């Protein structure tokens, strides 16, 4: 086993492969299960938005068809995403990714570089509920689906959040990011947001367009929304994109759900 592989495995301390820790769900602990349904290896990453420790070690390698589960503490708020086209240094100390890179680190302490699809969570928020969404506000690299599971899930309130459509296949030329190496060379590997591409207040919901009454959907966000109706397409796309679930739910996060 090479040094890079050993290093990635060491980062999985506290992470349980294939299933959650015994008794975690019964004890009311939230468990995230990540499934790679893509045809290629990804490197999932996590980042805490509050003072809580990084869940899942901050990042790890996940082969096609593989699952990994790890607990999320009550009160945790943060995001998860997939890094693609990654090449690990021989020492295993750094990781360069075509999309979603977090400063070259294996275990992320920074957010993923856009364009990147995000799954966002707040566990045990207002009224003790979980809040979650899938966001294309920072662009798109791979599809993500979030499904609440477990005995405590109410199907009428715990909706499916996600982006099943292949936005890369629909991405306008002015937003496309092309791969530069190997099998990805010349292929569209990600789709930028209009904010990242053009930087104007209209697309970034800043300045004179800095509120929900002055920043509405654009032709680009409408394209994202048509492909992924259950995902955030721009900053104020709340009514159809934020989901809530009661405490104690478990979450299945599937990368490339369209390939199921």
Task: Describe the protein's architecture and organization.
- It is a single chain.
- This protein is an alpha+beta fold and 260 residues long.
- 12% of the residues lie in helices and 26% in strands.
- It is built from five helices and 15 strands.
- It has helices at residues 3-10, 167-170, 194-198, 201-204, 219-227, and strands spanning 16-17, 30-36, 43-48, 67-72, 77-83, 87-88, 95-96, 118-122, 130-135, 144-149, 161-163, 176-178, 188-191, 243-245, 250-255.
- The chain has a six-stranded mixed sheet with strand order 1-4-2-15-10-11, with no helix packed on it. It has a five-stranded antiparallel sheet with strand order 3-5-8-9-14, with no helix packed on it.
Write the layout of secondary structure elements.
Layout: H1 3-10, E1 16-17, E2 30-36, E3 43-48, E4 67-72, E5 77-83, E6 87-88, E7 95-96, E8 118-122, E9 130-135, E10 144-149, E11 161-163, H2 167-170, E12 176-178, E13 188-191, H3 194-198, H4 201-204, H5 219-227, E14 243-245, E15 250-255
Parallel strand pairs: 2-15
Antiparallel strand pairs: 1-4, 2-4, 3-5, 5-8, 6-7, 8-9, 9-14, 10-11, 10-15, 12-13
